Amino acid sequence: MGALLMPSRMAGPRRRREVAVQAALSVLVFAAGLFMITPFVFMLSAAFKPNGLVFVEPLRIVPKNLFLDNFRRIFVDPLYPVWYWNSIRVTLITMPVRAFLVSLAAYAFARLRFRGRNALFLLFMATMMITPEATIVPRYLMYKGMGLIDTQWAIIVPAVFDVFFLFMLRQFFATVPRELSEAAFIDGYGHFFIYYRIVLPLSKPALVTMVLFTFIWIWNDYVNPFVFINSMRKQMITTGLQFFQAREGANYALQMAGATFAVIPTVILFTFTQRYFVQGIATSGIKG
User: What's the chain look like in SS3?
Assistant: First the structure.
């Protein structure tokens, strides 16, 4: 009888330890999140203050009076709205083209059988070991030969295909039951019908994850516009903010207003897609 009661007596302390560990981890994650969001809070606070109060009242998160003139000034600026529109245009062109090309290639690697498929896929994966910075000079020479320098196509064309998302979507497509494809084949449908009407609707979390990452990476890209675009009116918002900061000098409130408005699209997109984003990351590596 004592032996039967022993596990139940031990379950109480063990359960309390698990709860304590989970509580400690929750506090740690909350503290880390608070630490990471603090710069954004101060950025937003400074954007609504006159420049003279940014360092006079740095710890006053909510200003006594919301100063909106900073936001008015960035949109009457001759270049800031142009940079903003350039970033929107480049991302809106890149996202659907990348989604189509990468998902089509991922379907081919996941469902089709052809000679050299595995070798070609490994070759694609090997390119991930080469950092983009190591290829800046060869890319510059190649884009110059193609006439893409000082055009936004120098940003769009290389971004329409990405090996990381090829791998992610291939893994996700592999989890779609093959019985659905076989039933479509029996009904006389081909691969494109299966790809478009069966695989893509079932892969919405992975596709949304790719779209979200694509938007963030293209929108926040600094190096490529800085290197490949020379004209100020063709620049994107991230590189433009650097020139904006250099031009405005010590007007930190105006700089923070420009940076605040630059992060708004990313925050809005992530807010509406975070459920699919988490689901896509969690399920894209289930099956090889």
Answer: CHHHHHHHHHHHHHHHHHHHHHHHHHHHHHHHHHHHHHHHHHHHHHHCCCHHHCCCCCCCCCCCCCCCHHHHHHHHCCCHHHHHHHHHHHHHHHHHHHHHHHHHHHHHHHHCCCCCHHHHHHHHHHHHHCCHHHHHHHHHHHHHHHCCCCCCHHHHHHHCCCHHHHHHHHHHHCCCCHHHHHHHHHCCCCHHHHHHHHHHHHCHHHHHHHHHHHHHHHHCCCHHHHHHCCCHHHCCHHHHHHHHHHHHCCCHHHHHHHHHHHHHHHHHHHHHHHHHHHHHHHHCCCCC
**Superfamily of domain 72-283, CATH level 4:** MetI-like (1.10.3720.10)
Q: How far apart are CA 284 and CA 277, in angstroms?
A: 11
The reported pTM is 0.81
Q: What is the pLDDT of residues 179-229, one digit of tens each?
A: 888 888 888 888 888 888 889 888 888 888 888 889 999 999 999 999 999
**Every domain of the chain and the residues it spans:** 2-47, 72-283
Distance CA 187, CA 181 (A): 10
Residue-wise pLDDT tens digits, 160-184: 999 999 998 998 888 888 888 888 8
Which structure tokens are listed for 159?
A: 């971004």
What is the Rg, in whole angstroms, of the alpha carbon atoms belonging to the chain? 25
Q: How far apart are CA 149 and CA 225, in angstroms?
A: 10
- Tokens standing for 154? 């120098």
196 Cβ neighbours under 8 A, 6+ residues apart:
none
Interval 56-77 mean pLDDT: 82
